[in-house]
Amino acid sequence: MQAKVTATPAALELVAEIVAEHGPVLFHQSGGCCDGSSPMCYPRDGFIVSEQDVLLGYIAEMPFYIGAPQFEAWKHTDLIIDVVPGRGGMFSLDNGREKGFLTRSTICTVRM
Questions:
Q1: Are 41 and 64 in contact (CB under 8 A)?
Q2: What integer is the mean pLDDT of 35-50?
Q3: What pLDDT does residue 7 have?
């Protein structure tokens, strides 16, 4: 499967900062209501990936997953992970840094 997630230079810089502090991480984009379009960043051993999660690709060699129902809704969309001023997701490792990850998107061309 072709990677469906990329990151801006600002996001890659924040990932490097977090990995330097916490070690390997993973990202999860869920369809939950709490953090909207914020991908959540967790210690790699602090989040259990389920059989219902879909691996979209890697950001700075860190895996990026999405819940299966959300993947179905977004399967023709490429995600671009960026950084914006503000707080990260409540349980995400970007929280408390005065900047946080944000998911942007582009719609892919669908050929039938």
A1: no
A2: 84
A3: 96
Coil, helix or strand for 88?
Answer: coil
In whole angstroms, what is the distance from residue 27 CA to residue 49 CA?
10
Which tokens is 22 given? 């916490």
| DSSP label at residue 93 | T
How far apart are the C-alpha atoms of 34 and 45, rounded to whole Å?
A: 22
pTM of the predicted model as reported, rounded to 2 decimal places? 0.86
3-state secondary structure of 1: coil
> Residue 1: pLDDT above 60?
no
Residue 48, burial from CB neighbour count under 10 angstroms (0-12, 13-18, 19+): exposed
Quote the CA–CA distance of 77 and 55 in Å, as a whole number: 14
